[in-house]
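User: My collaborator and I are trying to settle a disagreement about how two of our proteins should look. Neither of us wants to argue from intuition anymore, so we agreed to look at predicted structures for both before our next call. Could you fold the first one, then the second, and keep them clearly separated?

Assistant: That sounds like a sensible way to settle it. I'll keep them separate. The first protein:
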Amino acid sequence: MMEPNFTARTDCRAARILMEAFPAIATFDAVGLTAEQIHYYLGESAGVAYFQLQALRNAGPAIAA
């Protein structure tokens, strides 16, 4: 099974969709927090979206908040 070939444009679009759906994740400061604490403060869905956004930011070019 081949993995999808995501471009920077696709990553930016996905990040924008996540930030529009969950505005709190764009500026959330998770320094010193565990994954469990992040989910507690943001809620389950926004917590998952936060980690997806971090993966997108780490995978390619800088994605502005």
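The second protein, kept apart from the first:
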Amino acid sequence: MSTTKTKLLCTLLFAFVLVISLTACSQFSPDDASNAVSYEGKALIIELEENPTTGFSWSYTISDTDVIHLVEDVYTEDSEDPEVVGGGGMHQYKFEGLSAGEATIIFDYFKSWEGEETAEDHVEYTVIVNEDGTIAEVNQ
């Protein structure tokens, strides 16, 4: 085999192995997340994609807990293929409006042992609540 053909074959083989390696190493990224927000009455539901098997999880803070507070926090694995090890799922946060005002709910996606400053994703929701506790508006 000539030197030119050998070099070409090695280059193509290297490119193929590189593409396969990069594809195999891909994982869930919160940037790909489909975030869902819904509200009715006093209830606000925020759903965020999460894959805790990677070490990442969402953490939240509320700027004013007199205006809104967390009622429930549930993670559900994807049910499409329960045989998949390390698959992701959805993290659902249920909040309840309490009194008139504006509060910001901040979510950060990071590994707990690395700290919040290493967050891979950051999402903020501004929530406006009426006097009776009903959710008037939610903005991202």
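Some points you might bring to the call about the second protein. Residues 30-139 form a domain with the Immunoglobulin-like fold (CATH 2.60.40.2020). Helices lie at 3-24.
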